[in-house]
């Protein structure tokens, strides 16, 4: 059973008489290859309505396909209308799932002297260690004020280009996001994770979904688990939000995040514009695909562990999205990136965001910009919290190298794939470094398959 419209659940492919049609819908959607007329043609004061003759003669067919656009279709040749699930039921959750797992934050509330077997991951590589801060490799620092300044934009643009090519990560300072807003987000995120377990269960992952409290990419009961909890939800467009998640967040947290997610989207679009300049591609050749694109938010909670060297906070991976903006909630380090075969810790700067290139931007840039493997490690003393916002193209877009970056000397390195198909495959896999991106390479191991 799947919820359709407002308060009505029906199995797929059942014929229902028109008179019991819900009186109002948030959106009504159909596959893009179906001939259609605007939904507005059937709306009066936001109420979906038909003439009496239509109600008397046409049954309604509800289907459960993934919708990509908002339309209502009168299939007069078959004598029925197609109505599909609302867009709220068609966000990222419909593209994959994760098995339900225990809450690590609750696990450590009781004295834990030994790590449960399913969390043991002793095979992890150690990070690069140095006796001096000066000899440690540092992630580049990009100053948005300089990018926006006529006096410094050229030199800062070169730094940005180098950071995206060689590191895939950078810390962004002078980003223009209000410090008071950032501090509110930090404080209220901490309060959210400190809610009683009974309150948090209202936001628990549901079977077959990836959104809510839990862990992601758990595809088998034997799979090793991360030493951490997450809360993931779709944030933009607003009609992709699950009704029991973002709209039900406690106040003032919900209102704070409403402002924050818009700030993050605007910041991501600004950085994408500068990346277009650095790549010397046409204006909006990349950015326009993100303007009405997908945004998701992942809040991470990594409790202290009695054997931190035996576990991993988050499995090594590259981000599947276009661009990630990370906010460190407290001052505890834990993020590490793989560069030149070594794991390098990132020390977050005060009042900075950590920005990283995702797989989609590596594809768009035809391999010029790199999505870098990273992981989260934990310690034995203090919890670590962070908030990542992920930015991707709109669901009906296509992912592939930007045409102006493809030449006879530099042919396309990646196959083209629709965004919906791309994420459906991604969410169905366990995290494994950059393995999913390699599948999309033209010389990849699954070349020619329908990804």
Describe the structure.
The chain is an alpha+beta fold and 451 residues long. It folds into two domains: 2-87, no CATH class; 93-439, Sandwich (Jelly Rolls), CATH 2.60.120. The chain has eleven helices and 24 strands. It has helices spanning 52-57, 104-107, 144-148, 153-167, 179-193, 197-200, 253-279, 288-291, 359-364, 419-427, 435-439; strands spanning 2-4, 8-10, 15-17, 29-30, 43-44, 47-48, 59-62, 69-70, 73-75, 80-83, 141-143, 169-173, 212-214, 229-236, 294-302, 314-317, 323-328, 335-339, 342-345, 353-357, 374-376, 384-392, 398-399, 417-418. The chain has an eight-stranded mixed beta sheet. The chain has a four-stranded mixed beta sheet with strand order 3-7-10-9. The protein has a four-stranded antiparallel beta sheet with strand order 16-21-18-19, with no helix packed on it. β1 and β2 (8-10) form a beta hairpin. α4 (153-167) crosses α7 (253-279) and α5 (179-193) packs across α7. It is globular. The two termini are 28 Å apart.
Quick tags:
Jelly Rolls, disordered C terminus, alpha+beta, 451 residues, single chain, eight-stranded mixed sheet, 2 domains
